[in-house]
Hints:
Helix content: 10-25%
Structural class: alpha+beta
Number of strands: 25
Shape: flat
Radius of gyration: 28 Å
Distance between the termini: 84 Å
Order of helices and strands: HEEEEEHEEHEEEEEEEEHEEEEEEEEEE
Amino acid sequence: MTRKLTFAVLASVMLAACQKTDTAKSSEAFAIKTSSLITNARNFFDNNIATIQSKSPPSNKETSSRQQVRKTPLWGKASVVQDETKGEVVIVPLQYEKPLHFKASFGNGSTLSIEKQSNLWIYKDASGKYKAEVRITLPNKMFQEGIVKSFEGYILEEDWLGNGLNKYLYKNGKINIVKENFPVSDIENPTNKYIGECDELDWYLCDYISQNGVGYNCQFLYTEYVNCDGGDDGDGGGGGDGYINNDFCTMTNEQAQASLNIVTTSIESNGISIIGQQTAPDASGIIKKPVVVKRHNITYSFPGGKTATYTLFFPGVIFKTTTNSVWKWSTEQGEELHFQKIERTAGSFPACLSQSVSAIVSLVVSADKTKADFQAEITADLQVSCLGGWVIKTKHDSMDGTYNAYEFQ
């Protein structure tokens, strides 16, 4: 009985050892195959795709199109997945030369980073030829807030230079192809405003994005239309989740003027400023800290529910003469607090409406340099392209405020 039991235990130990060996061999084989797939994909990219970017002109500060911003594959973070339609796919994260971010009209209002929403996909097509595409994921509000578990929103497939290949709308458990491409619109080119109800992306360059999706020091670039009424998505046209249709495009002159007359404004002083690093005491014991005051905003509310927020930017330097002394505003040349610009930092406009906002600002630093008072006159030129042509209205608003140096320490 003892001998039979011993043999049984031995057999079980040997079987377990064989299973472990098989598992180890299987894991090793998988790792070798994965490494080979990534190496082959990289060789294809380096020899066929990277050369395209090297011949394109470098991006600069004036570059506004996201497609012109250079990007680099992070091969050290590449992985391999099995896709239902494309088979084995090498997925490579991307690093962009500039801090590109966007807000989607169909999203939950948070600012998203293009780096976190895009990847390079490399795979073989049915004929065995390598294909490379950049895949951009644009989630909608329902998915972002966890109301639905399966992905909803858009997926864009583009070549390495940003030319559109495919665009898919995921909604209500269905996947539809968006066949039409739409223009972009910026401050200098408002005539590209698409006529109809659209799902839009507002593109920004942002210094920092908080965990709550709030963008800081964001510079608006332009609006990109993902899908609009009349665009064939295979399911009765486009349209945004929760996007309220406004009808500027089909209004008469009189209707457009009446709508512009009910555009409202609100002044807020709850903006978040940028506070830099404090310097070490210099030879005279003076300590300095750079700041950009972005406290005051003006928000325009349009018929249909859309809003656009503009922020006043005041860069400057605060200082104190000793560790325990009070903070003051510097009045040295190049460091003095001054008005720099007014810029759109949130929101967007209804279709067929464009807006130009400017500010005339006076600013006075107190004699003891502990505070600065400003007064601003804000002018907004609203332009509507309607059935009757162009309708223009100018709005004037005033704001003022006090910036105590100690508030920015």
